[in-house]
């Protein structure tokens, strides 16, 4: 795919259209039937993503249930994103990127110290963003689980070797999620500067919510 | 005339007390020092826990830093789904994503650490006689078991691992929000080049075992239910034995601790946590 691929039009009225600054958190309620579009404006910007059931937020996205049910670690067009109770929360209705990650997790100040050294302890990280965004909804640290990393590339090699490697996204590429239940969607626009998930340069992304609720 | 033996409290008491010596396969050994199967290197006086966990069953145990935990796949068809919490502060728990990312490898084996979400080693895998484990697929749910077996409830014949976790964690004051992604011991998952999940569900040779070391004071939670991708139509899972015994906390010159810069820092972070 190239950045020249036109984005398909979104069905229904645009309800929200916002640029998320580089390094920033974001959270928003998305109703069942609405589409959340995330646009990688400048290319290879990891967008860390979690979601919670609006009316029972102890039910949340489950990477492991999603991977088991689809029998594949990569999220692609058609992937159904399951909850911790095995219920469909959203589906990937379209994307211009071949695949997205859901096994690499979110960067944290603490894991950064293991991966890069103790000098990274004070650097901003996705877990900080998730904790901040979750605080708007009465959610906290115990609500953090393995997340989705839109636009991030994490291959697993035959010997199990795994790593965040150079991205396969490009400026203007997108992913569309159709909510299958009312959800709280939470984003950390990843601030990581020590690996290639953001091309070593965190950049803004755009989010659009469109469509009438079912 | 058919006289009931339990029509009055004394009769009911006698009936209840007559059961006290019954032995079944899936039960704890109390006291643990009477363990029937001492793990290699363990002495009766050092034993902390011996329990055979039923097919479809669960158990949980608080273990001190340095304790060893041995899991034995007694009949070759156990699936030991495991959660781990910092016992002192359970908001710190196993982070499967950090575990595979920080170690640059998704396949657990001897020498692997289980990392918390706070950049610390919660446990390490000091011995692995199985080599078939899973960090990807997690626990079965009521929904997934209902789809495969017709039911998945805790009170039925096909309990699911998530609801086993729910009961086990509830007994430590934890709940649905605390059931984090798990690891599955004994059932092997490998990833194909296209990202496909490939399960080796066995059954395997009986008696395969692994030994974990607690690197912090922990609560370990085990559910023994069929792997969520196990394709066999029957509810296929077999009893699992858990044994734990006292051990010394990991020494500064420990080989596993010094096997990588990431491990060195994870253990340094543990040391800092206990510097008080």
Key phrases:
heterodimer, A: four-stranded antiparallel sheet, B: alpha+beta, 13 strands, 17% helix, globular
Can you walk me through this structure?
The complex is a heterodimer of chains A (214) and B (276). Chain A has helices spanning 63-70, 109-116, 126-135; strands at residues 14-20, 25-30, 35-40, 47-53, 80-82, 88-95, 148-150, 173-179, 183-189, 205-210. Chain A has a six-stranded antiparallel β-sheet with strand order 1-10-3-8-6-5. In chain A, strands 2-9-4-7 form a four-stranded antiparallel β-sheet, with helices on one face. Chain A has 214 residues and is of the alpha+beta class. The longest helix of chain A is centred in the middle third of the chain and has 10 residues, at 126-135. Chain B has 276 residues and is of the alpha+beta class. Chain B has one domain (51-273). Chain B is 17% helix and 25% strand. Chain B has a six-stranded antiparallel β-sheet. In chain B, strands 2-12-4-8-7 form a five-stranded antiparallel β-sheet, with helices on one face. In chain B, β9 (188-191) and β10 (197-200) form a beta hairpin. In chain B, 53% of the residues are buried. The model of chain B has no long low-confidence stretch (mean pLDDT 97). At the A-B interface, α1 and α2 of A face α2, α3 and α5 of B.
